[in-house]
């Protein structure tokens, strides 16, 4: 379970959001909607531990997560819009690198995890290819496999269907539903209402469900 309590972010003298309270239960899929520029990606970056928050708490499975923007570990997996794959590494290497470096798994253990994830995600034929050889939907599934290889407590996506055609969007919906069946807790920032309707247990509206402006 992820609990967000009274989270706030300020850029300069501008309160981007404050008073953010939200709970996501294990295995649930939450969609986060809201107009452009409202702070959704900023929130994901805070959740991923890449950007500091100015106030509040993030509690994942009863463990408090550091909100100072320099978190170690991989409790939260985030798939950003540009996927951030390592261009110089193959698909398999993209997935096996962090488990070996961060989790200190052996190459064999990391390979076994990668083979299973990549097969489940329909990427067995791409295992030895490089990111530039992949379609947008394939890159996204590699990013999902890479995040899942670290066994995160929660998986979050920033606009997972933007730039994808109808077929790839269907595939994303299938993957999200499949992960939900496996009990993975997921959070999806999206403008795609059909996607939200197809997969979400509940919706958080970043436009109306947080406070903004004024002082902290
Ligand atoms: N590093 C930064 N410094 C100052 N302001 C920033 C910074 N990053 C984002 N902002 C501002 O914070 C606000 C929220 O941006 P954010 O990217 O989180 O919005 P968003 O809801 O994800 O928008 P979109 O749906 O268009 O991606 C914007 O007004 C943006 O200009």
TrEMBL record:
Residues 2-216 form the ABC transporter domain. GO terms for molecular function: ATP binding; ATP hydrolysis activity. SUPFAM superfamilies: P-loop containing nucleoside triphosphate hydrolases. It holds the Pfam family ABC_tran. Gene3D superfamilies: P-loop containing nucleotide triphosphate hydrolases (3.40.50.300). It comes from the Bacteria. Keywords: ATP-binding, Hydrolase, Nucleotide-binding, Transport. Its EC number is 3.6.3.21. InterPro entries: AAA+_ATPase, ABC_transporter-like_ATP-bd, ABC_transporter-like_CS, P-loop_NTPase. It is an enzyme of class 3 (hydrolase). PANTHER family: AMINO ACID ABC TRANSPORTER ATP-BINDING PROTEIN, PROTEIN TRIGALACTOSYLDIACYLGLYCEROL 3, CHLOROPLASTIC. This is ABC transporter, ATP-binding protein. It comes from Weissella paramesenteroides ATCC 33313.
């Amino acid at each position: 379970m992820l609990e967000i309590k009274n989270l706030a972010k300020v850029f300069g003298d501008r309160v981007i959001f404050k008073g953010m309270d939200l709970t996501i239960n294990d295995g649930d899929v939450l969609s986060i909607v809201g107009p452009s520029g409202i702070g959704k990606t900023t929130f994901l970056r805070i959740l991923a531990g890449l950007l500091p928050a100015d106030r509040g708490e993030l509690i994942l499975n009863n463990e408090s997560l550091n909100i100072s923007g320099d978190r170690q570990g991989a409790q939260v997996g985030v798939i950003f819009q540009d996927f951030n794959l390592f261009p110089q590494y193959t698909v398999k290497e993209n997935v096996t690198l962090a488990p070996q470096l961060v989790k200190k798994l052996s190459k064999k253990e990391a390979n076994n995890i990668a083979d299973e994830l990549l097969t489940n995600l329909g990427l067995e034929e791409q295992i030895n290819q490089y990111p530039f050889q992949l379609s947008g939907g394939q890159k996204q599934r590699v990013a999902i496999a890479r995040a899942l290889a670290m066994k995160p407590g929660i998986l979050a996506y920033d606009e997972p269907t933007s730039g994808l055609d109808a077929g790839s969007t269907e595939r994303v919906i299938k993957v999200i539903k499949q992960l939900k069946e496996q009990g993975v807790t997921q959070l999806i920032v999206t403008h795609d209402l059909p996607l939200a309707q197809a997969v979400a247990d509940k919706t958080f509206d970043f436009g109306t469900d947080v406070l903004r402006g004024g002082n902290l």
